[in-house]
Amino acid sequence: VTPASLTTELRTLLAGVLGTFTREDGSTTPAIHQGAKVPPRWTASGLEVAVQPEPETESAGAFGTLTERKGLVVLLRAWPNTPAGALDAARSLILARHADALVRPLVPALDDRLATQTLVIRYVASTPRT
Amino acid sequence: VGFVELRARVTKALEAGFRDTMQLFHRYTVENIGKPMWDWDRSPSPRDIVDTGALRAAESLTFLSPTHAIEGNSIEYALPVHEGASFADGHSTPARPWLRVSRREFDWQGTARRVMSL
Fold it and tell me: What residues contact A36, with CB distance under 8 A and at least 6 apart?
């Protein structure tokens, strides 16, 4: 799995719940991309999906062995006009496809802060490290 | 030494080792909050996550049992600082997951061996 292939997969999988990016010239495209932020000078509405370009390594500590997994980070970001339930639906769709994805705590919407959920799609199984 | 007594001694040693290891992990985590790796360049006011010191002061280690402990942070804005946050005007603050990084980088085995004199 690469960031590009995962983005392609999620574009199809989440087609029904994705929001929209509007470019400077007024044209629109589904709100999914590789990167941490909305592309400069674009505006977003609805649910945005951002696949981080760099994989992440997760480790779990233990007295005996440590385990490591690599994963791709997917950010779900709900802009103010996101339909109710879209973020939950996107999370469920991803988990149905990637059952061992790690779900990070939901950062809830507050004042002008957007609800954001991070998932990590693991693509390297546990490897013991002694 | 009978089996029951031996088991009790081993259990006690392991529990003491766990407690000491976790206390050293807590100290390591608190120190990590102050490291420059969390700085970000949000113009015009570069800030770190120590800022007023309230988040670092709220870092805590709680023992639920002799073999179960929770390292966490009780301040109300800890979650958006740790996981990152986006705002409706387009700006965002990056995730600065000091707990995940501390857990990943802490020398668990070496510390446990050291505190238990193994």
Answer: A50, A52, A75, B92, B94
